[in-house]
Amino acid sequence: MTDWGWLQELIAAYQGLRDQWGLAVDIFCVVFATGLLDLITRGLLAWLGRRVRKSQNIWDDALYYSVNGPLQGVIWVVGLSVAIRLARPDEGLEWLSYLPKVRGVILVALFTWFLFRLIRSAGANMLARAAGRDNAIDPTTADAIGKLLRISALITAGLMIMQVFGVSLSALVAFSGVGGIALGFAAKDVLANIFGGLTIYLNRPFSVGDWIRSPDREIEGVVEAIGWRATTVRRFDMRPLYVPNAVFSNVSLENPSRMTHRRIMETVALRYDDAAAIPDIVDEVRRMLDADEAIDSDQVILTYLDSLGESAINLLVYCYTHTTDWAEYLAVKQSVLQRVQDVVRDHGAAIAFPTRTMHVPDDLVVAQARRGGDDEQEEIDTEKVQSERNKAMARERTRAQSTRGPDSPTEEGEA
Question: pTM for the whole thing?
């Protein structure tokens, strides 16, 4: 009995304080116990946090970061509701009858908050752990699953709140059948975009980070985000383009990000004077492409005389690169074209440029030459006449000046 003497003394002191202060002591004890439980919970969570950071399990990390916050809220809601009930007078006020409903709504909100944090933390941890692995989780799929889980949590929270307020779920289901039809007609465009987004999530024609383009519409760029209503595409001029999800159900779409190779298809024009060297050039270019490690020899490699153009003989160079990176592809293509020019040059040939040869009859050439000679003789005679005329005018001015003398007025002065 001596071991529990301190407890009996504590109870006696509590009874004395309660007889003196009444319900205030009970309320203080409840609030104090609530705060003490909150401190103990925080300390326990801090200790668990140090152990959680050392583990490799993603779920204990997500659970720890999600429960820290909502749990303290639950503790204080329960403690304060008990304190309010203890402080309630004998003749209760009307607002006190709503206390259980308010407490139920707050608890549902805290539970929904916990679920949202758990979903977000688990998704972020899964993507972080899977980064760099071969079986990495698709960010688009993870985002779609997270959105579906959050919508499910919101719907569940809404139904729980309705039950708190005494709403019959069977009546709600009956009303939703009629209201859903009216809502469907009123928001058909919104629903079309939502179902379009769901189709993108299920079929996955593209993912976040993919380069997409549509031949039917002016849609081309990198996918930044896939929402329930619209998909954000960053164009190559860095402007964002918001495309409604319903559009992707009605247009053709290309996803160049999922290509396995990049194609080189170029036409090399040679002169007609080099026609004899074309077979050797074609064979040399083919051997060069087969030996190139940047060119996939398992794919189609074509080097043939393709066509006889107006001013050149066209050779086709057709192959595929291993890389799909745009900058690396351009470097490989540049190397291929430069070596093709070297092969052409080594065989004594040259790259052709657009030319045109005009054949003129001999009679027309002779007549043109004679006409040109007559025109040249006429120009020479005209120049001689003009020169003699200028000399005569100069002699006349000299003679007139000598006749007047130095003091004679000029014609301009007389005028």
Answer: 0.52
